[in-house]
Recover the amino acids of this structure.
């Protein structure tokens, strides 16, 4: 067993894992602080992860994926949910761009980085954590996608942007019912009944408090210009 | 028949949804949006063990002039619930 501590979303966790690679993966998030929670991976977690991963993406190996699932199941108790999306901040205001896998959210966000230079900073390019309390805060963590784009940072979340391919159009989504079902498919819902119910309640809060947009973009720098001019610029005022 | 305990009814601002939990999440990955009759049915089956006939009689009392429509709607919804294992 390898024991180490990480600090994510202002919460310190002690991790008991099987492989040194898992500790290494957590890199920037390692800490010596006293843990609030202890997570111990079991053989069963790894076996279950093989089945789970048939429905989605595996992070490096089953152990690293299984660990994040356990963390997500635990942090829901602290009003924290896992979002599938690319998160970044512009002048300390946080945004999440989300889409079905393979549509191009990471490409679009990377174009925003190119456009905005030093005003832009990645939070987490794949699975940011979102604390739904008085403030809505988006946090980074080590599970930041294949390209490992992310920083150990956080920001107050201003809006969620749903991305599709298209010819650079955008709209604010005022139909909350439509947004609700879009959100359900992009937020991790624990299997446990009480925890899943909690996640659904947190989604209800998000729906009331955030602005939502839909963008239909090509993968050209002009699409990033549109997202910045039409959405981000207004949200950071 | 009763509502499977591994299904959760959740109230949203735009009506209720029915969503699997626990082991049922492995079989059914979706969410069912409930209209007012759908909500009434799942709540009845959450609280009571009822046959299709008892359920139909309940709605016939509510809508005595639309028995055919009620039968078609309720039966079709019950079949959908059976399909996803939401009722046992």
């Amino acid at each position: 067993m390898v024991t180490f501590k990480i600090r994510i979303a202002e919460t310190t966790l002690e991790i008991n894992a099987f492989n040194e690679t898992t500790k290494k993966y957590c890199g920037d998030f390692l800490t010596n602080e006293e843990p609030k929670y202890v997570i111990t991976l079991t053989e069963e977690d790894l076996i279950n992860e093989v089945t789970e991963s048939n429905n989605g993406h595996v992070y490096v190996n089953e152990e690293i994926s299984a660990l994040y699932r356990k963390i997500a199941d635990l942090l829901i108790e602290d009003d924290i949910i896992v979002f599938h999306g690319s998160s970044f901040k512009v002048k300390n205001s946080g945004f999440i761009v989300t889409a079905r896998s393979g549509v191009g959210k990471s490409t679009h966000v990377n174009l925003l980085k190119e456009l905005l230079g030093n005003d832009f900073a990645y939070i987490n390019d794949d699975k940011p954590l979102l604390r739904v309390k008085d403030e809505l805060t988006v946090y980074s963590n080590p599970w930041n996608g294949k390209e490992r784009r992310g920083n150990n940072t956080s920001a107050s979340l201003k809006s969620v942007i749903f991305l599709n391919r298209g010819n650079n159009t955008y709209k604010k989504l005022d139909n909350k019912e439509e947004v609700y079902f879009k959100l359900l498919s992009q937020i991790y819902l624990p299997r446990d009944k009480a925890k899943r119910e909690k996640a659904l309640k947190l989604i209800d809060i998000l729906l009331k408090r955030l602005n939502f947009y839909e963008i239909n973009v090509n993968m050209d720098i002009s699409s990033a210009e549109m997202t910045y001019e039409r959405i981000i610029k207004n949200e950071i005022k | 028949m009763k509502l499977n305990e591994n299904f959760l009814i959740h109230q949203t601002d735009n009506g209720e949804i029915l969503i699997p939990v626990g082991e049922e999440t492995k079989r059914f990955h979706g969410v069912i949006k409930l209209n007012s009759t759908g909500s009434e049915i799942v709540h009845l089956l959450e609280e009571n063990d009822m046959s299709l006939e008892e359920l139909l009689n309940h709605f016939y009392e509510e809508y005595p002039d639309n028995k055919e429509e009620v039968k078609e709607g309720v039966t079709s919804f019950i079949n959908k619930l059976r399909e996803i294992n939401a009722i046992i």
